[in-house]
């Protein structure tokens, strides 16, 4: 059996923007078989085991003072240790760094990704280091500044998110990682927030991930 860790944020967790209640902050999670890690598991079958470690508002290497305990770099090493041995680690993060309060360029965000890649490529207990698959998040909506979380992300988030395709590919290549770019998959995103993936988007990504895993692990 091949063991695969999916380490991501709300777009891997399955945030259902249609269910979000703004006054209470309550949101529902898409069912396992709908969100992309669960769909990839179904497509791959019992010879593969996808381990979900996904967290809303998770960041790469920058602390969010309003949503603590979401730092990816701080939890990745422990997660890798707890789930060793692993054949593959999937990283899909970076959209939360588009928030205005971080004031980060897309290149700075990709440098944070590089730190997680290096962490994921470590050996644990004498087992070989896992392969790493980097997923560049889909560009956010051009109108995200007018959407539900526009006060957090602002209009500049869209232009920055367009750079993920190139910069994440560059980061993956420099560390000999596999790569999937969500941009060519033409996601629709949920129009309520212009940030989270629709069910159709999860289907597209689940299929792409399953195909890439078969290519990498056989």
How do the strands and helices of this protein lay out in sequence?
Layout: E1 2-8, H1 10-13, E2 15-21, E3 26-29, H2 36-44, E4 48-54, H3 72-83, E5 88-92, H4 106-120, E6 131-136, H5 150-153, H6 156-162, H7 164-174, E7 178-181, H8 199-217
Parallel strand pairs: 1-4, 1-5, 5-6, 6-7
Antiparallel strand pairs: 2-3
Helix pairs in contact: 2-8, 3-4, 4-7
Structure summarized in a few sentences:
This protein is α/β, with parallel strands linked by helices and 218 residues long. The protein is built from eight helices and seven strands. The protein has one domain: SGNH hydrolase (Rossmann fold, 3-Layer(aba) Sandwich), CATH 3.40.50.
Q: What is the CATH topology?
A: Rossmann fold
CATH architecture: 3-Layer(aba) Sandwich
Total strands: 7
State the order of secondary-structure elements, H for helix, E for strand: EHEEHEHEHEHHHEH
Describe it.
The protein is of the alpha/beta class. The protein has eight helices and seven strands, in the order E-H-E-E-H-E-H-E-H-E-H-H-H-E-H. It has a five-stranded parallel β-sheet, sandwiched between helices. It is globular. It has one domain: Rossmann fold, CATH 3.40.50.1110. The mean pLDDT is 96. Helix 2 (36-44) crosses helix 8, helix 3 (72-83) packs parallel to helix 4 (106-120) and helix 4 (106-120) packs parallel to helix 7. 37% of the residues lie in helices and 18% in strands.
Attribute tags:
218 residues, Rossmann fold, five-stranded parallel β-sheet, 8 helices, globular
């Amino acid at each position: 059996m091949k063991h695969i860790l999916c380490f991501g944020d709300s777009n891997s967790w399955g945030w259902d923007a249609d269910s979000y209640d703004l006054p209470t902050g309550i949101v529902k999670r898409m069912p396992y078989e709908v969100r992309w890690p669960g769909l990839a598991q179904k497509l791959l079958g019992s010879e593969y085991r996808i381990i979900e470690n996904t967290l809303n508002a998770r960041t790469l290497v920058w602390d969010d003072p309003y949503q603590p305990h979401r730092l990816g770099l701080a939890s990745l090493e422990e997660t890798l240790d707890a789930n060793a041995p692993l054949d593959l680690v999937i990283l899909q993060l970076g959209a939360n760094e588009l928030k205005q309060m971080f004031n980060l360029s897309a290149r700075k965000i990709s440098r944070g990704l590089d730190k997680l890649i290096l962490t994921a490529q470590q050996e644990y207990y004498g087992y070989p280091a896992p392969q790493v698959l980097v997923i560049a998040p889909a560009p956010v909506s051009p109108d995200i500044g007018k959407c539900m979380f526009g006060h957090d992300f602002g209009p500049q988030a869209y232009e920055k998110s367009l750079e993920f395709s190139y910069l994440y590919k560059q980061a993956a290549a420099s560390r000999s990682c596999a790569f999937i770019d969500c941009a060519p998959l033409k996601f629709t995103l949920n129009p309520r927030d212009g940030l989270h993936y629709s069910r159709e988007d999860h289907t597209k990504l689940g299929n792409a991930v399953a195909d890439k895993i078969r290519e990498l692990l056989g």
